[in-house]
Amino acid sequence: xxxxxxxxxVLLEALPYIxxxxxxxxxxxxxxxxFDDTSLRESFARDVLILRLVGVKxxxxxGGGPQIGDxxxxxxxxxxxxxxxxxxxxRTMEIVEMVLGGLINxxxxxxxxxxxxxxxxxxxxxxxxxxxxxxxxxxxxxxxxEVVVDLGRVGEVDSVNPEVIDRLLxxxxxxxxxxVGADSEGVTLNINxxxxxxxxxxxxxxxxxxxxxxxQGVQGEGGELLSTLDAGAAERLIERGVIAGGMIPxxxxxxxxxxxxxxxxxxxxxxxxxxxxxEIFTDRGVGTEIVANGRWRxxxxxR
Length: 303
Prior knowledge:
The chain is an alpha/beta fold.
């Protein structure tokens, strides 16, 4: 009997969040090594379906860096990174689009259908969803001299036309989007998934942007998980070197999304089973929520 009561308490804890977020849009960036685990992929698909069944409108943007790297290695094509960005020549772009728009995108769609949902896979090129621009060459210092590096077909989001996503959500579909776009001349570009998810969340006026990653969340100076921080605190932690490495662009994407109107950003460990549900529908959550300046209410604040 106690076990059943505990299950009922879980539902009761989730109830106010289900009520609050009914009809709201969540943009979820899914990727990293969580995709390599079959059970975690299926768990993620179920979580997305549960969100839809309780009235949330999930939109999934996925990455695929490790899978792209594996495919390039199999084809004996060298992977080269500069400042964490993959240098993308024409041949590499073909593989990027094949892996993202084909293998990964359709696998996520398949899994959502398998658990009972309805999903549609597309990329930023479909329905003129994403207009991209080629990223400017990077200017780096090497041995005291400036070096200019052209990243090739790496793009950033110039504008978003959310019409196709709006129509899919109205028809009760779950959009699954690969981070590939085209520029004004129709040239396909490789776009960072976190950045694309943030821009899409802003254009859709999303309630939440959830960034799934390969660590527990944002950590403080002692290595402890920070349950909540505001945008100003996040920038100060970056300046002090507490937030470092690959977490810097992820947090800055989140902060920009807040500036652009997204209500809350969550950085969550995608390797943890049911991480999205635990972060959104429990009082304490399991990751880090980032809020706009002045909106943090401390421990126990609504997720």
